[in-house]
Amino acid sequence: MKEKSVIQLARSLFYEKALVKVDGAYVGAIASIPKDANAQDLNYSEIFIRDNVPVMIYLLLDGKHEIVRHFLNTCLKLQSNHFQTQGIFPTSFVEIEGKLVADYGQRAIGRVCSVDASLWWVILAYIYVKRSGDRAWAASSEVQIGIQKFLNLILHPSFRDSPTLFVPDGAFMIDRALDVWGNPLEIQVLLYGALLSAVGLIQIDLTEKGYVTPQSRVLKGDLENSFEAQQIHQRSYAIAWLTRLRNYMLKQYWVNSKIIQTLRRRPTEEYGDRVANEYNIQTEMIPHWLQDWLGDRGGYLVGNIRTGRPDFRFFTLGNCLGAIFDLISPAQQRSLFHLMHQNQTALFAQMPLRICHPPLDNDEWRKKTGYDRKNLPWCYHNGGHWPCLFWFFAIATLRYKQRYGLSHADGEEIHLLLQNNYELFLKRLPQQNWAEYFDGPNGVWIGQQARLYQTWTIVGFLLTHHFLKVSSEDVNIMNLPTLKELSLF
């Protein structure tokens, strides 16, 4: 098929078969398009917040602001008021006989709530307001109350002093047991983006109410216990949390060859406030494959930090979002892109992009996944290939090129990498029915249990086409406010 025909096919599938209505208006897309309109295929006919991230970004680029607003409002109606889960957003929802039915994890394998859904809602809300200019929606009481519920859920006392968010296995895109419990990278990066977005939305509301600075009116007696006073308190607390979180992530999660060599030589069994090896990482826990993986210029954010058990696996989405949200510095972003280019045979292969590398194998797979047949080595989330991830890499690299520039050689490398993989999409995705994921060391085989006509595969391709062929300027759509900008308010 020619490029134009593939684009027309993808748009037709998306707009005519994937989008669904709630309350009589389009609200978002189902996870995958069924062969038979009456077929029930697990929960793939539901509207997932996570799966609708690329959908909402594409709709904003296509000027369909009203659908995005309806999606955000529908999710907001479903924000939990239950005592134990107050403030969380559902993993998914569906309209059945005119009634909205939401899943907060009670139907998931492992019965785990999708923490990333709540974090993504706040980020999408900010992106919607920035793109549409709908400041009135941001300043509405419903939205601001929803943000306060979310912040009360996140910014609360706990048994841990770490600024990271502690979650179980299955709490994000990797939604089955894969030894990602604790402080997984993707959740921490999304937490950073969500807090930036929440503060940005609060400041829009305060500005609309005439608060030129946070202190300008809050000290008046009639406002001391007001909702605005709570907003200003939460804003201040969130900014302090953001500062701690970024410093922590750069110190504990970022590695390159020099840092690894330092880690290997640190003492163990230390106690006290001033220690070099805070998490008591033994040399044996640092894998030898890192030598070739990092090279002399590469760097990335590791998958997890836990006492004595760091996870050095490379997780694609968390690293790409770390660049998009400017969690890592421009120099670190350049090191990340170099690492991904250097290891393109492993990460991109014949179907970009691999979700994590390397996969758990042999005894590790058996013990850490519980013999999960879907997560066999090189399958599904255990080293499988997900085309829905490629547009995040495209945004990260093109955004960096626009803001900071690249040398001629580096620019050519990135351009060729993007173009070659886009050509792979054009050739393979229509032939293989827009499969959900691909298996094997090279990503050649359609996933063993992959759904076909997966919406985020279709929309991920459309986004890649848009950024590479239509408007590279639009890669700035996911820009969030910076810590410096928020602190100046």
Question: How is this structure best described in words?
Answer:
This is beta-fructofuranosidase. It catalyses: Hydrolysis of terminal non-reducing beta-D-fructofuranoside residues in beta-D-fructofuranosides. It is a single chain. It is built from 18 helices and eleven strands. It has one domain (3-267, 287-487): Glycosyltransferase (Alpha/alpha barrel), CATH 1.50.10. β7 and β8 form a beta hairpin. The longest helix is centred in the middle third of the chain and has 26 residues, at 227-252. With 489 residues, it is an alpha+beta fold. It has a four-stranded antiparallel β-sheet with strand order 6-7-8-9.
Could you say how many structural domains there are in total? Answer: 1
User: Number of DSSP strands?
Assistant: 11
CATH 2nd-level architecture: Alpha/alpha barrel
Strands of the largest sheet, in order across it? 6-7-8-9
In percent terms, what proportion of residues is strand? Answer: 5-15%
Q: Which structural category fits the helices and strands?
A: alpha+beta
Distance between the termini: 52 Å
Largest sheet: 4 strands, antiparallel
What's the multimeric state?
A: single chain
Radius of gyration over C-alpha positions, nearest whole angstrom: 22 Å
User: Could you name the CATH class?
Assistant: Mainly Alpha
Helical content class: 40-55%
- Alpha plus pi helix count: 18
CATH T-level topology: Glycosyltransferase
Low-pLDDT runs: 218-222
Order of SSEs, N→C?
HEEEHHEEHHHHHEHHEEHHHEHHHEEHH
Mean pLDDT: 94
Shape: globular
